[in-house]
Design a protein that fits this description.
This protein is an alpha/beta fold. It contains 6 helices and 5 strands; from the N terminus they run E-H-E-H-E-H-E-H-E-H-H. Helix 1 links the parallel strand 1 and strand 2. The N and C termini lie far apart (about 50 Å). It binds adenosine-5'-diphosphate.
């Protein structure tokens, strides 16, 4: 079975990676789809985000990393996937995720959204929290894969030097 895991992944965290690993065990092929969306003004370029995921999932089989623009349901259809995976960390995620799931269902009746709950020790992790810690030179080694930690350091060191 194939499952599509869409997101911004700006950057990939250990929470995202944990979801990818568990979906890989449960379903087999995981297509990780990185949203291009320039309006969100991502911290990391599309290429960097793709590379971060490719590097962090090297130990796994059946992982495909792609980028997409536009609607998730279109991306799912184009890639022949009927299952969309999203993660839930807290009640605050639920309202937003349910709204998206209902919207997607109204657009593509044969696609299902499934949710995996975060593991408790990853529940505080988000891309924004990680960037906030890295910005002030905090330790992020327990929050992101090593490659992402390096990218964060490079990004914020250069940023500070530029100021
Ligand atoms: P988006 O901008 O689409 O929300 P994100 O990269 O922030 O993209 O998140 C992608 C998906 O991963 C979302 O469903 C989000 O709830 C989930 N996710 C993010 N962080 C975690 C985490 N720590 N544990 C489990 N799921 C997570």
């Amino acid at each position: 079975m194939r499952v599509l895991y869409p997101g911004s992944f700006d950057p990939l965290t250990l929470g995202h990676l944990d979801l990818i690993e568990r979906a890989n065990r449960l379903f087999g092929e995981v297509v990780v789809a990185v949203l291009k969306n320039p309006e969100k003004r991502p911290t990391f370029s599309l290429k960097q985000r793709l590379n971060q995921i490719i590097e962090a999932t090297e130990h796994l089989d059946q992982i495909t990393v792609i980028s997409f623009e536009g609607l998730t349901v279109t991306c799912a259809k184009e890639n022949n996937v009927d299952l969309i995976l999203r993660g839930l960390r807290a009640l605050s995620d639920f309202e937003y995720e349910l709204q998206i799931a209902h919207t997607n269902k109204s657009l593509a009746i044969n696609q299902e959204t499934i949710f995996l709950a975060t593991q408790a020790h990853h529940s505080f992790l988000s891309s924004s929290v990680v960037k906030e810690v890295a910005r002030f030179a905090g330790n992020v080694s327990h929050m992101v894969p090593p490659g992402v930690a390096k990218d964060l350091e490079t990004h914020f060191n250069l940023g500070l030097k530029g100021n």
